[in-house]
Amino acid sequence: LRLGRSVLRGWSGNMYKFAVAFLPLLLALLTPMWAQSTPQVDDTEDHTETTTGTTPSETTESQNTEKTSIHVTSLHINSTIKWRYATTVVTSKIINTGEKSGEAFFTILLPDEAFISNFSIQVKNETYHAYVKEKEEAKKVYEEAVSLGQSAGHVAQTSRNSNRFSVAVNVESLQKMTFVLIYEELLKRKVGLYEHFIDINPGGIVDHLDIDVSIEETRNITVLKVPEIRNEVEIKTNETENPLAVTKIDGTTAHVSFSPNRQQQKEISQAGVTGQFVVQYDIDRHIVDGGDIQVVNGYFVHFFAPPVEKVISKYVVFVIDISGSMYGRKMEQTKEAMVTFLKQLRRGDLFNIIFFSSDAESWTVNSTYEQQALNYFSGVSEDKPASDIVSPIPVSNSSIDAAVEYVNKVEPTGGTNINLALVFALNHSKNLREEVNDANIVPLIIFLTDGEPTEGVTGGDEITNNTRQTNSDSEIPIFSLAFGEGADLELLKKISLQNHGFARKVYEASDATLQLEHFYEEISSPLLSQINITYLAHVEKESLTKTTFKSYFKGSEIVVVGKLDSNDKATKLESEIEATTREGDIELRSFCVLPPPRDFFPEPTKHQDSFYGNFLERMWAYLTIKELLDRELALDSIEKKNATKEQALALSLKYNFVTPLTSMVVVKPDDHRNESSSKPSAEDAEEEVDLTSADRQSFIPPPGGFMAGIPASFGGSPFGGLGGGFGGAPVAISSYQGQPGPPGSYFNTYQIRTTPKFQLNVGMMHTTTMDFDHHLVYMGPESTQEEDFFPGVLWTNRIFNESMIEVNGTQFELNIYETDVLVKTCLASGESSECIHINSCNSTMIKNDYEVFLDHLCVMDSLQFTSIKYAGVCCYPSLLDTE
Prior knowledge:
Pfam families: VIT, VWA. The chain is α+β, with helices and mostly antiparallel strands.
């Protein structure tokens, strides 16, 4: 049907309607012939998957006649939200009570903005940890798994603004298994609320279902809501409170729990609890000030959301697609939303409406649709003369009524000339300064389309270049709406990112009008414009996220994160904010008193609360990666795109984040191998491997390990106690779409000396990214060997039986007496340092705790033997033993 619409876009309105009506009949006539020539597919297998639970499937021949006995016994979800940064731990326990083995799928829907940071499976008293690798490396494992016919799970888009994570694992008879998944995200404030979404679907009634959400904020929590479970995709206008949720507010902290028993679960649904558990909250903002600055361990975050009362007047240019593909329900929903938009305009606002298809025309108050209709469909236009630009229309009862009447008469037809529409709209907005003598009016463009460019300029690069050049001197924000599956969302994202706005997808559904209205509500009330935030001292400027913003809208929030400069001796971190309100320019200040330098650059201690000590650093990494990915999409230069992508990749690997550039890798437990076969043999290890030749400083993990920021009950760092990846067959997990990059690698390839001993998967490899939309999970069992080897280094008695260590299948020597090595620089918690032997670092934690050693692992090259690599540590500068 979509293909037919595309072909028929250029037809006249009446002919188009006839074609759309006739097309289903044509398809009905063709269906029998198609069925006769199409091979029949066996679709008897049940592919249903359940969120935050498991979907079992028998592996025996009687799969279709014998019901599985695998089910979820408990589902625990724990979210810790500190200063808007949420870390969620999902723990699902299953059991196979049957007499035969079966395959269980652990599946969960994740918020679209979340990054997975850890995954593990516990079975037979062993824990299998996943680690993150560069996407191209993971692709090789995935392809090998497919070639071997192994089962593969996947992460795919299934629900609005979410991604599906799924992994399949074989479960023996009477076997228990525990899945643990951790993901992290920064909650965004929209329309005055932070919303935290947790998807639930254990696949039935479970004995233990618990959700626990703890919130700690910078100011008193004033709003806390838990709506009823959302078990419908579409938006509801009125939501009731969840009667089973227990909430408590205590100043700056809040707690939410949800633990329905079996009977209560049945009352919700006979099939068990299914849907989204949502927590909404906000904090006190009664004073217009410079916001909150918080500092933890050398990193800071600045939250800015002043409750300015007076809304700045705006000049909105609505650019609406009325091409043939908009015919039907989409056009009706767009009209309904436009009527709402127009009626919400305030006195003092200005507006224009541009309708476009093959051509583009600007609406005027005195014209009628019949007068202008022929212009829309008279042919393709490449440019519009200045005489076609209409002056901004002031909001009044008569102008709004005339606009509503006109909108309701519009009929779709023709092609899609995106380039012409955007350039025409920008010329309207630029005309504002000539027509209206009010510098405080905020111009913005709202652009809606449901298709790809088919008329005029159709090349994406040319369209973005033309748009950017036209807007270069005005910098007018463009907010784009991609309506339906046919819209080119990537193109719209790039256009908006290059022009100070953002793009959203509008799903084709009965609530599309509400989706459009919610979007408009976010940007309809500008409170500040031209915001510039400056930090007067004590920050590393290159570490800062975005500090300039075109507008601040009511109900939103500006967030800046960065690193402190350890060489600066200032006693406070101070910010200066310059912005424009409706009444003129303002200047706001905010500051945070800093502890002595040694207090906020501490060496991690064994009993340190890792979440509170490390979460702000992870928040910085999270936001920096998000901004780098947006910047990469907006750039045109291949060289700059690749450099930006490399920065994002390095941070993704360092902080163990699953992003569009990385994949999670695992070797799943395999009951068909005995214990001895899960150990690597010399033959297995005697193969070519890739090691990075790039400076290793980019990959030194943060103090406290990748698991810092995760509740201590979950276990240690994923770097600690990992197997070598030989313990079972790989299983693929597909996820986000990475951006294409050039082929190649930043690895040297060479032969290594090997012995079949303990293997570590540190996951610090790095290659140029490729276009690959699959995610992998690669897991191995924990293993230790008892023997004392290095006096003073306590962990060696459980790792070595000689002075060798293997990381990702590559051997390194731990020779504390070797002096003929190449000294390299590295970064230790943001400070420049040197890669040295472990005995030259005065850190008891590194010497006593193997996981901390791995967090600071770096590589030293032998000056005599190119094939020998020494394992060193990136030591804090203050702990270097210069003797």
